[in-house]
Amino acid sequence: MSVTGVRLVVLCLGLLALPALAADKSVAPYLAAVEPKPTPPHFAAIVGKPLSLLAAAIGQKPKDTNRDPHRAAHQPPHAVAATEKPKAAPQVAAAAETPPAQLSEAELAAKGLQLFNDASLSGGSKASCATCHFSTGHTNNKTYVGLDVVADGDPNGRNTPTLWGVGERSVFGWTGQAATLEDSIRGIIVNRMKGPEPSKETLAALVAYVRTLKYPANWQLKEDGSPTADASAAVKRGYELYLNDGGCGTCHQLTSFDKKSRDDIGTGGKFKVPALRAVASTAPYFHDGRTASLREAVKMMWEVYAKKMESRQPTDAELDDLTAYVGAL
């Protein structure tokens, strides 16, 4: 049916209904209570409310004259379903990152040994830690100013100490400037070797390695430094002199055989008391390497103590015995 025909039918029905509604006013309240169904905007614009009621009654849908019949077929899927909410993309759980494996002490020390021999830690790759301490951590028995070897006894020189037993020291460096082993190693790399700032990982590995460097055992001494029953008579006598008349134990305290404080013994300033373990193989002696023989060093220190305490000087036999004991450390 055309739109014009629909209009005529609706108009006729409306005219027929008016007398009945006017005659029976009791129907009005019920009509007012009934809410009309929502009408599509395009029908209301064409024929008004009566046409919408008729269309609903006969089950016909009004034709959308503004719609292109070919348009929907060419619309993309997202345009047809524009009113639908887009589905959220499925959430994919991120893979958990695996933290780096923690190195064992043995693995860390092995890495430290490699770094100990790595010249790239120094400026211009001129030297490694092993240049002065060998790979065993012992001393090369030379005196240095920076990385330059100088004559023993040079007032600006520093005698290379052994790193054996370094983990047992109280403070570090000839002037006791480093409170920890980490600080000492960093200072050597940056200040003496003129190398770049080492990472925390590098320092941790180097510290782990040097802490594995132990003093060699001596069959004549116990771990606390006292003589064994099989020790020589000279070592036993020397031990008594060490603790008493020689005064050595005042500064080189058992069982580490060093002391945290610095002392001035007349060698050009205050210096840290060095450890005496393995001292027989660490010549030359004192911070500047001024003394070549252990016996000479023992004699000098007894004289320093005697002057300070106003006590007697040693005999040659006593020097021999004390040197025998200190050499066994």
From TrEMBL:
Ranges of biased composition (kind: Low complexity): 88-100
PROSITE patterns in alphabetical order: CYTC
Keywords (A to Z) from UniProt: Heme, Iron, Metal-binding, Oxidoreductase, Signal
Subcellular location: Cell envelope
Region (Disordered): 61-100
Extent of Basic and acidic residues compositional bias: 61-71
Chief localisation class: other
Domain Cytochrome c, residue spans: 107-214, 233-329
Signal peptide, first to last residue: 1-22
InterPro entries according to UniProt: Cyt_c-like_dom (IPR009056), Cyt_c-like_dom_sf (IPR036909), Cytochrome_c_Peroxidase/MauG (IPR051395), Di-haem_cyt_c_peroxidsae (IPR004852)
Protein name as catalogued: C-type cytochrome
